[in-house]
Amino acid sequence: QVQLVESGGGLVQAGGSLRLSCAASGLTFSTYIMGWFRQASGKEREFVVFITGTGDNTYYADSVKGRFTASRNYARNTLYLQMSSLKPEDTARYYCHVPYYRGSEWWGQGTQVTVSS
Predict the structure, then answer these.
(1) Is 85 helix (H, G, I), strand (E, B) or coil?
(2) In sequence order, what are the beta bridge partners of 3?
(3) What average pLDDT does range 60-76 have in this prediction?
(4) Do 77 and 68 form a contact (C-beta atoms < 8 A)?
């Protein structure tokens, strides 16, 4: 059973920074692609970033490119999302995601990020 537990969300002013964490268990952390999605109130969930198992390659949504950085800590089985130059439109609930493991995709419970103007 895969478990993904996000943390690090909160309230921040525009232009500020936050770092989200996703503690993963139940899978071989270094093998699988992982990612972040987000969902703003009243909107559909949208892709933010994918990062490969080795961490060598990342794929960002255009809306966050240059401002957000995904990384992995293999000693802690933790996925991070460093967010900088935050904008009010980044306000959303952020979800950790494993797109494929043992025939299923997996989601965390999410962590709320609110950016005030």
Answers:
(1) coil
(2) 25
(3) 97
(4) no
> What CA–CA distance (Å, rounded) separates 100 from 48?
17
**Which tokens belong to 13?**
């002013």
Q: What string of DSSP letters covers 92-117?
A: EEEEEEEEEETTEEEE---EEEEEE-
Per-residue tokens: 45: 């969930």
For 5, 36, 42, 44, the CA distances from 21, given in Å and listed in that order, are 8, 10, 24, 22
Supply 30's token pair. Answer: 């270094």
Q: What is the pLDDT of residues 15-41, one digit of tens each?
A: 999 999 999 999 988 899 999 999 999
Residue whose structure tokens are 């999410």? 110
pLDDT score for 57: 96
For residue 97, the cross-strand partners are 35, 107
